[in-house]
Amino acid sequence: MSKDFIERPRKNEKDGAIQYVKQLLEQALEEHRNEDVNKLEELIRLLQTKKYGLVWEEHAEIVEEEMKTKIPVFVEDVEKKIAGNPDSHNYNFLLEGDNLHSLKLLEKTHAGNIDVIYIDPPYNTGNKDFIYNDSFIDKTDGYRHSKWMSFISKRLEIARELLSDTGVIFISIDDNEQAQLKLICDEIFGEENFIASITRNTNSSKNQSLYISVSHEYCLVYSKNGVALAEKHKDNKWAVDKNNIEEYQKKVNQLRKAGLTNEEITAELKELTKYPRFIDFTNYWYFDDYGLYRKGDLGGVKNGNIIPLFNPLTQKMDPIPPGGFRYKPEKLKELVKDNRIHFHTDGSLPTIKRYLSENSKQRPKSIMSDDQRPDYKLLKDMGISFDNPKQMTFMLRILGIFEKDSIILDFFAGSGTTGHAVAQLNKDDGGNRKYILCTNNENNICEEVTYKRLTNIKKELPHNLKYFKTDFVDKNYFPDFQLEDELLNYITPLVELEFGIDISNPSVQIILTEEHLADLIKEGKLEKDSTLFIHSEVFLDSKEEAILSQLNISRQVIPDYYFGKELWS
Predict the structure, then answer these.
(1) Would you call 23 exposed, middle or buried from its count of C-beta atoms within 10 A (0-12, 13-18, 19+)?
(2) Neighbours of 105 (CB within 10 A)
(3) What is the 3-state secondary structure (H, E, C) of 408-436?
(4) 20 to 30 A from 457, CA-CA: which of 2, 83, 234, 244?
(5) Phi and psi dihedrals of 314, rounded to 5?
(6) Please, what are the domains in the chain?
(7) Over its length of 569 residues, how does the chain's per-residue pLDDT go in tens digits?
(8) Beta pairing, strands 407-410 & 114-119
(9) What φ, ψ does residue 360 adopt, rounded to 5°?
(10) Rounded-to-integer distance, Cα 247 and Cα 277, Å
(11) CB 103 within 8 A of CB 155
C-alpha cells in the first residue's frame, strides 16, 4: 500500500533538521558543554516524536497559572454539612471551586481509586456556555475550539489518573466538539480503551436548525484499562433495565383500566413502540394474568418434535413448525398447562410467551432515549432554575451498571443529577455508593442549585454530605519551614475526603503533636483497627508503639502524604 503514497516533503525537512542538530550535539559532547548536550538531546527527542490525531494551539488558563505560586486547599463550610443518615458513617462530598483545582487535590486522595466518572462539560456552542480565563467564548473567537480543547484535555488527563484500573468514564457532548473530543480521548485514554459512543435521543428538537432538526446528543465511554475491565466482567456482563420500563408498564396499566379489549390494547401498544423511548418493548404487545409478553418461536430447529399440539381455541390440532418443535412432548404439555403457549384462531403456528418480567434486563444499547420533561418539573418543584439538567433515568441507567460500593465522580456537577441518582440507587438496592461532585459557584450555582437539590432530597433519600470550598496557601507568604506548618491546617479535609468520613468518627484521627497522642492514650480514646495520620515529627516511644500494635492501629505519615510535591518543589 505504501506505493500509493508520495513521500511527504516535510519528512525530508524534518530528517535534515534532525541531522543538523545531531552534528551540534557531537560538537557539544566534544567540548563537554553538558547543559547544551541535555538541551540538544531533548530537541532531537521532540523532533523524532511522532504526533498522530488532533493537534491544536494550547492555551494557558489563569487558574492553572495560579498554582505556580498558590497551593490549592480545601476549607469546610461547616454550616452546609448534611447529616441525613445517622445509620451510616460514610460521607459524600460537594467541592466548590474551579474543577481544575479540585482535581489537583483529588489526585492526592483518590489517584487510582475512582470507579466511575460522569461529566457533562460545556458544549462550546458559542452561546455563552463556556468561559475561559474569565471571559465567555462566543462564535466569533478564532481560538474557540483550541481554547476548549486545552481546557478539557487538562482535566481529562487528571481524570484518567483518578480512575481505577477497571474504572470507566462517561462524557456527554454534542456535535460542536464531539469529533475533537473523540480524538482527545483516543490520545489520553487510548483508542484501544474506547467502549462506545452512546447516541441519546433528547426528545427536544432544535427547530432553529436550517436543514435538520437536531434531537440528539452523545455520550463517549472509555475505560482506564480495557483488558482489566474485560477480565473483571468476563463472567459478569453489563446489564441494565430496558429503557423506560416503568413508564411503559404504566402506559399498559392505563390502557387496561380504560376498558379496552385485548386486541385494542395490542393495537395501541404497537403504535406506542414506534416512539424512540419505547423501542425496547417492540413485540411486547400482549398480556395475560401474568403480565406483558412477546411471542417467541417454538420451531427453528431440525429434526425436532413432530407431535402436533391441540389448540383449545379452535378445538383442532395446530400446524407443526418446519423442522418440528424445539421442545419435547412432555415439555410442551407442561408449557400448555402453565399457560405459556399463545394459540391463534387463524391457523398460525403456536408461539411461546416470553414475559417482560423475565427479560427486563439487557446489555446497554448505544442508542438511548429519555424524556427530559420530568427533570424540568423535578427542579421546578424544588424551586430551582436550571437549563438542560441531565435526565435522572439516564443517570440511573448508566450508574446502576456498576458495583453497589462504587465511588462516583462528577466534576461538572451542574444541577447535581449525579448525586441525586447515587442517593436514589442506594435507596433502591441498599447500596453503599459514594459521590464526589465538583462545580464552581458562578451565578451561585453551587449553593443555589447543586447544594439546594441535595438538601431537598435528604428526607426522601437520607445521605451524608460535606461541603468544601477551594482556598489557597500562597507560597510567597511563608518561608519553607513555615509553609509545612501552614499546610498542616488543611490536612483534615483531605483525610475526610479520602476515606469518605467525618473526622469526628474516632476510627480515623489526626495526630499533630506528641501531647495529643499521649492524651488520647491516657483517656482511652484510641479505637481498635483505626487509622492514625501522624505528623512526621511526632515520635513514638516503645510503650506507645506497643499500644498501637496491640490495638491493630495503622499509621500514615503527614504532611508529605498529601503535600509532598509542593514542599519538595
Answers:
(1) exposed
(2) 23
(3) EEECCCCCCHHHHHHHHHHHHHCCCCEEE
(4) 244
(5) -100, -10
(6) 2-48 (no CATH), 62-239+364-473 (3.40.50.150), 245-362 (no CATH), 506-569 (no CATH)
(7) 445 544 455 566 778 888 898 999 999 998 888 888 889 888 888 777 765 567 777 888 889 888 989 999 999 999 999 999 988 889 999 999 999 999 999 999 999 999 999 999 999 888 777 887 777 787 888 888 888 999 999 999 999 999 999 999 999 999 999 999 999 999 999 999 999 999 988 766 555 567 888 888 999 999 999 999 999 998 888 988 888 888 899 999 999 899 888 889 999 999 999 988 898 999 999 989 888 999 999 998 999 999 999 999 999 999 999 999 999 999 999 999 999 999 999 999 999 999 999 998 889 989 888 777 888 899 999 999 888 889 999 999 999 999 999 999 999 999 999 999 999 999 999 999 999 999 999 889 999 999 999 999 999 999 999 999 999 999 888 877 788 888 888 999 999 999 998 988 788 888 988 999 999 999 999 999 999 989 888 999 999 999 999 999 998 888 677 887 777 65
(8) parallel
(9) -80, -15
(10) 10
(11) yes
User: Which residue in the block uniquely carries the three cell numbers 420500563?
Assistant: 245
Instruction: Please state the pTM of the whole predicted model.
Output: 0.83
Do β-strands 92-96 and 434-439 pair in parallel, antiparallel, or remain unpaired? parallel
Q: Strand pairing partners for 213?
A: none
Other CB atoms within 10 Å distance of the CB of residue 512:
19
559: nearest Cα among 509, 484, 500: 484
| Other Cβ atoms closer than 10 A to 315 | 7
Cell of 197: 459512543
Q: Which residues contact 297 (CB under 8 A, 6 or more apart)?
A: 321, 326, 351, 352
